[in-house]
Amino acid sequence: VFGYTLDADATVEFGVPMVDAPLLIV
């Protein structure tokens, strides 16, 4: 159970670099 999103801005949440992809992990 995670709570971060992978958005097109490649933002960094929870200290994890996101990739360019629409994805929501809940």
H/E topology pattern: EEEE
Radius of gyration: 8 Å
Provide the domain count.
1
Tell me the overall shape. Answer: flat
Q: Let me know the largest β-sheet.
A: 2 strands, antiparallel
Query: Number of DSSP helices?
Result: 0
The assigned structural class equals: mainly beta
What is the number of E strands? 4
The proportion of strand residues reads: 35-45%
Mean pLDDT: 54
Low-confidence stretches: none
Distance, first to last CA:
6 Å
Strand order in the sheet with the most strands: 1-4
Describe this structure as you would to a colleague.
This protein has 26 residues and is mainly beta. The chain has one domain. The chain contains no helices and four strands. Strands 1-4 form a two-stranded antiparallel sheet. The protein has a two-stranded antiparallel sheet with strand order 2-3. It is flat, with a radius of gyration of 8 Å. The mean pLDDT is 54.
List keywords for this structure.
single chain, 26 residues, mainly beta, two-stranded antiparallel sheet, 0% helix
